[in-house]
Design goal:
Pfam families: Asp_Glu_race (PF01177). It comes from Nocardioides luteus. Belongs to the HyuE racemase family. This is Hydantoin racemase. By secondary structure, this protein is α/β, with parallel strands linked by helices. 48% of the residues lie in helices and 14% in strands. The strands form two sheets. A four-stranded parallel β-sheet has the order 2-1-3-4, with helices on both faces. The protein has a four-stranded parallel β-sheet with strand order 6-5-7-8, with helices on both faces. Helix 3 links the parallel strand 3 and strand 4.
Length: 263
């Protein structure tokens, strides 16, 4: 008897109508690195998370919860929220009974198994306070010890997929920022805080003297795949005793009504 594939939704915060070069390349990359018997489907959010800041994170996070609830109803085995900031990640876990994996949380935890001191390079300085709060929330302040920032919009990153000189400029900035973290903070693992540069550099060998350059999307994908097996073995995706206590159906329905009512 053929075993049906494990289906994992990759919930991006990019817009399918605007960011096709990125999404097509992402789908190909996920198919390339997927474990045997695992298939990924990529979906986005419209409008995309281009207005960098807390309010946009909230709006996209709420929309992602809607997509995650729909994914469970469609029979997906797990959802990987492909947005390093993990907006509304905890809330999403209370709304469904399948694993919901955050790109940021999963990759940072996995990176801690690769080295002692981790450094992040994020898209824009606006995210620096957010990432520091993330790191503290996950209890990683003694491990993820430095965060530096590009000054790069999502659209600029996406356009670099078809522009070698633009990619080289982004890569040079990443290496410079990462090297500074190695020298000043003693980091031994560096990675981008997000999937845009991770995908840009997926086929490249980025070297930073003194540190391992990790791909956060690869780390998060492996965590998502493991979470399906763990959930099946334990009979639950998370503990329902506290932080991720299951939301009532009325609470879920009210959120879905709110999101649909804004369209």
């Amino acid at each position: 008897m053929n075993t049906p594939p494990t289906r994992i939704l990759y919930q991006s915060f990019t817009d399918p109508a605007v960011h096709q070069p990125y999404l097509k390349r992402l789908e190909a990359y996920l198919a390339e690195i997927a474990a045997p018997g695992v298939v990924y489907e990529v979906r986005g959010i419209s409008p995309a998370d281009t207005q960098l800041g807390r309010l946009s994170e909230l709006r996209c996070g709420v929309q992602s919860v809607e997509g995650i609830v729909a994914a469970e109803a469609e029979g997906f085995d797990a959802v990987l929220v492909g947005h390093f900031q993990d907006a509304c990640l905890y809330e999403a876990r209370t709304a469904v009974d399948i694993p919901v994996i955050g790109h940021g949380e999963a990759s940072m935890l996995q990176a801690c198994m690769l080295g002692g001191r981790i450094g992040l390079v994020t898209l824009d300085p606006v995210y620096l306070p957010w990432h520091r709060e993330q790191i503290a929330r996950y209890g990683l302040s003694s491990r993820v010890v430095d965060v530096r920032a590009f000054r790069l919009t999502p659209d600029q990153a996406v356009s670099a997929y078809d522009d070698e000189s633009a990619y080289q400029s982004i890569k040079d900035t990443f290496v410079s920022l990462a090297s500074t973290m190695v020298q000043e903070s003693g980091v031994d693992v560096v990675m981008s805080a997000g999937g845009l540069f991770a995908l840009l550099s997926a086929d490249d060998h980025v070297e930073v003297p003194g540190a391992l350059v990790a791909n956060p999307t690869l780390l998060a994908v492996r965590q998502a795949e493991a979470s399906v097996a763990i959930s099946r073995a334990m009979g639950t995706p998370v503990s329902r005793g506290g932080t991720f206590a299951r939301a009532t159906q009325q609470a879920v329905d009210e959120l879905l009504t709110l999101v649909k009512g804004t369209r």
